[in-house]
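Worked example 2:
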Amino acid sequence: MLKNRVIVIFIALCLSGNALSQPDSTKLSYHLFHPTPMNMMRSFETDRPDATESPYTVDAGHFQVETDLFKSAYLSMGEIRTIENQYNAFNLKAGISNTLDLQFVLESIVTEKIIETGSTNLKSGIGNITIRAKQNVWGDDLGKTAFAILPFINIPTSSGTKITGGLILPFSLSLSANWSLGTQVEFDLDKNQSGFGYHMNLLASVTASHPLYRNFSFFAENLISRETELKSYEYYINTGLVFNCNDKIKFDAGVNYGLTRTSSKIYFIGFSYRH
């Protein structure tokens, strides 16, 4: 069955990545129940606020939470307007080994308002659950480049909806003058609108970031996605600011600005913490 195949592929990718990884040999002995000492932890890296995932993992035995405190998406198509709000959609991460972390993502509270001529439809509830595993292949502790494999499974919270999943391949490059470049390719296995079978969607992005004044930094990102069943594209230009309070706490805010008719305008405020 397809659901079982997705789970088997998910586990196989994690194990294969672990075999390929070239970690810092001085940190190999640390794991979930034997945490990496504070003075040996790598710099505080997050997958947010841009859409491009980071190839860096959480240090072994440590935990990290990254959350959209508030995110609002606006979409207008003809006489139909849709407003979707998310509150405290979080990603909880646990460092399993020096190069592997497991992630639990929950869209905590989601509200949707659909406005048509003369009518308004309101819905609210808990969003989907996503289980992810990020395996760094190289560069977690050493070098100017890093690469990871990040398989994931989406588990719907509403009945009658199919499990979906995919694979993300993030890469980063440290440049001169404190510039950082990141890119990723993503393959999403999504259900067909007919309710039968699946199809593969594609996404690619590139992002650049740089420190600004004191503890502030910014990012600028370009993202394109391809919906293969509908044969449609979405384009986004994303930007935002990050405030680094210290080596454990970050705040961020930004916008994902869709450029096509089917692309939403998304505004968000976020928070990240590691322990």
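The chain is about 5% helix and 55% strand. The longest strand covers residues 80-97.
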